[in-house]
């Protein structure tokens, strides 16, 4: 079902002239079908368009599905370059290292005062935010 939806989304985005969205869905279809050529084509199109956010999201999907460390590193790099801190949190969460968790905790603690009160519960319930343990002390986060 996901493949059919992604194929329709790609076709509709292309028909409507939304090249970056069409490229993202082309890459998504590539991830679902393990078609490296489609993924490469999509990333090339996103690079030409300058959409690092969608490139990071596509790489993150690929890393989550394939558990490829190189894709995860590329996704994290693109997320940082895009400036999308929420996407960066997701990339660090998927990476799962102690260093990622410590950095994510700092980032979440920085973001929390800027999250509207009506959205704080939803923000705090995001898996990446729960994992970051923003209320933990440095001692709580030390390994071992």
Task: Identify the notable features of this structure and list them briefly.
2 domains
- DSSP E strands, number: 0
Tell me the radius of gyration. 17 Å
- The structure class reads mainly alpha
Helix content: over 70%
Q: Distance between termini?
A: 43 Å
Which sheet architecture does the biggest sheet show? none
Number of domains: 2
Strand content: under 5%
From the spread of the alpha carbons, the general shape counts as globular
Helix and strand run: HHHHHHHHHH
- Total helices: the number is 10
Calculate the mean pLDDT score and round it.
Answer: 91
List low-pLDDT spans: none
Folded structure, characterized:
There is one protein chain. This protein has two domains: 50 residues, no CATH class; 76 residues, no CATH class. α2 runs parallel beside α4 and α5 packs antiparallel against α6. With 144 residues, it is an all-alpha fold. It is built from ten helices and no strands. The chain is globular, with a radius of gyration of 17 Å. The longest helix has 15 residues.
């Amino acid at each position: 079902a996901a493949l059919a939806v992604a194929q329709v989304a790609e076709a509709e985005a292309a028909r409507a002239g939304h090249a970056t969205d069409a490229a993202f869905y082309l890459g998504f279809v590539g991830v679902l079908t393990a078609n490296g050529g489609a993924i490469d084509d999509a990333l090339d199109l996103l690079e030409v368009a300058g959409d690092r956010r969608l490139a990071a999201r596509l790489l993150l999907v690929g890393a989550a599905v394939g558990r490829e460390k190189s894709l995860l590193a590329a996704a994290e790099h693109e997320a940082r370059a895009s400036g999308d801190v929420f996407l960066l949190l997701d990339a660090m969460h998927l990476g799962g290292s102690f260093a990622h968790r410590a950095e994510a905790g700092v980032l979440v603690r920085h973001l929390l005062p800027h999250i509207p009160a009506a959205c704080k519960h939803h923000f705090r319930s995001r898996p990446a935010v729960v994992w970051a343990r923003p209320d933990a002390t440095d001692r709580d986060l030390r390994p071992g």
